[in-house]
Amino acid sequence: MGSAQVTLGGIIKQLLISGSGGGYVLPAAGRTQNRSQDVTFLSCCFSGKSSVALSVVPTVDWSTVIAFAAVVVTGMSDSWILRRAKYVLPSDELERQRLKLQHEVIRRAFGGALLFPCVRLSGNDQVLDSGTGTGIWLLELAPQLPPTVRLHGVDIITRLFPTTYPSNIKFSVEDVTRLPSSWSNSFTLVHQRLLLAALRKVEWPIAISEMYRVISPGGWIQLCETGSWRAGPFTARFQSLMRTLLDSKGLFMDCYKAMPLMLRNAGFVDVRVEVIQLSLCGAEGSDDRKNMCNVFRGMKTPILNVGGFGFVSSEAEFDALVNGVEDEMEKTASAQKEYFLFCARKPSL
């Protein structure tokens, strides 16, 4: 059993870091002839893990079972692994292209600006980009700043990190709910956007408090999240399906509504909110519409893996629903999507 645990742990660790999905089949080291016996095998990994009740193992999402096993056999952070297991979007080359398009949409929406007007960076300032993904925000920000400003991008996986970048940019694997203690009061700006599909509802206040801690007195936080989106009955149905999926993962679809209060509760002042409404119709809304529907298609596997939540029962039904959403958005003049940009300051000493 010992050698099997080591083999399983190594494979699970590589699986999670590389960004593959939760539908992974157990390797030969741990696989038996049926799923229930596989669960029994994984249950053996929980010896001494008092926070996990073995009786619930057969009822939880399979990706979460694998994640719990990985906690024990690899010693990795349980919050890091659980969030990696619950993240509902894919992490591959298609995701890289989608994030590039998403960045372009958001930047255009806010007039091409990467920073709130109140944010000023110079000298030896440091900037942290949480959930950096491909690092595109940092890569476009760097040429606008003096080379003495140091930029640091963090995420829970490395697969999307760029391979070439300026010498004043650094990328590393970090958990925004548990940033290094040595980073306290270090950054003039912390930037984060569109993590509603990555942070659980209970983790949002923790993440914001951690960002507050690492911001230097007088420094700023800048966040961006999506708000509501509307077009017609297909869109409303998929929105309900998406809400059900995110709720099942403990995620927070309406985080934008609670953001100002969460920022103030963490200690931030001068909270500012900017709301942009973008059309999803016709040629004007083409990029954002394409990006949204690519996001929806990326949710197919986690939705179908749990039976479709009563909204869809097959791949064909799922595809038809998303195609209906896309067509409806394109043809509905009133189809819109909101983006919320938040900025707040940590009080000076």
CATH class (first level) name of the largest domain: Alpha Beta
List SSEs in N-to-C order.
Answer: HHHHHEHEEEHEHHEHHHE
- Give the helix/strand class: alpha/beta
Total E-strand runs: 7
- Fraction of residues in helices? 40-55%
Low-confidence residue ranges: 1-82
Tell me the span between the first and last alpha carbons.
56 Å
Beta-strand residue fraction: 15-25%
The CATH fourth-level homologous superfamily of the largest domain: Vaccinia Virus protein VP39
Overall form: globular
CATH topology heading of the largest domain: Rossmann fold
Mean pLDDT: 80
In the CATH hierarchy, what is the architecture of the largest domain at level 2?
A: 3-Layer(aba) Sandwich
The biggest beta sheet is recorded as: 7 strands, mixed
Number of domains: 2
What's the alpha carbon Rg, rounded to whole Å?
21 Å
Strand order of the largest sheet: 3-2-1-4-5-7-6
Give the helix tally: 12
Task: Describe the protein's topology.
Layout (H helix, E strand, L loop, with lengths): L1 H17 L16 H9 L18 H13 L3 H9 L6 H17 L16 E5 L5 H6 L8 E6 L13 E5 L13 E7 L10 H11 E16 L2 H16 L6 H12 L2 E11 L6 H13 L1 H6 L9 H17 L4 E10 L4
Parallel strand pairs: 1-2, 1-4, 2-3, 4-5
Antiparallel strand pairs: 5-7, 6-7
Helix pairs in contact: 1-3, 3-4, 5-10, 7-9, 8-12, 10-12
What do you see in this structure?
With 349 residues, the protein is an alpha/beta fold. It has two domains: 85 residues, no CATH class; 253 residues, Vaccinia Virus protein VP39 (Rossmann fold, 3-Layer(aba) Sandwich). 42% of the residues lie in helices and 17% in strands. The chain contains twelve helices and seven strands. It has a seven-stranded mixed β-sheet. The protein is globular, with a radius of gyration of 21 Å. InterPro entries: Methyltransf_25, SAM-dependent_MTases_sf. This is Methyltransferase domain-containing protein. GO terms for molecular function: methyltransferase activity.
